[in-house]
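Letters spell out the chain; backbone shape is given numerically. Take this protein:
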Amino acid sequence: MRNKTGRRAICLLSGGLDSATTLYLAKKQGFKARGLIFDYGQRHKKEILSARRICRAAKIPYEILKIRLPWKGSSLLDFGLALPREKKIGRGIPSTYVPARNTIFLSFALSYAEAIGAADIFIGANALDYSGYPDCRPAYFRAFHALAQLATRRGIEHQKIRIRTPLVHLKKSEIIRLGMKLRVPYQMTWSCYEGKKNACGACDSCVLRAKGFSEAGVRDPLL
């Protein structure tokens, strides 16, 4: 849906290709986007740096919000837990799942949106080529959208805050093809769960990214 009024929107940015594509799509649709980036104690800062670069390339304002999840519960937060390798993607919930992460992120985004009068929150979640996280499913986002109307002044006053998930039903290859049309700077994105100089190529995120570019018939500019 194209937005002709230039409404403000909050876009969650992880530094990966999905969130970058979502941001550029929101801009294409005419939204006045603001980036929201989370520093939540993840294994490396490389994705935060990527998210910041993407916001600068898109020429949008952004916030980097530092929060703590000291109870950990994920291999993305706990260096004592090994990252999964060579498992069947989608068979069970992997150790990289961060408990209630999207609920935490969307709650901050909801507060931010209401504070600045934004009516839309964009998140680059995908429920087809993904690792099986429970908070990436369409049913979850429908429930959170309903919550947003009940839990905010805007909602009570019948001014909806919409949770927008434009990529949720797309395959990774379809997301990449869309991003190429939008001229998303994929060379700035980072998907790997490790923060080394080069992507590991073996974690879920790397495997899904490689599969997407291969099926899209496009060379990954990051490589």
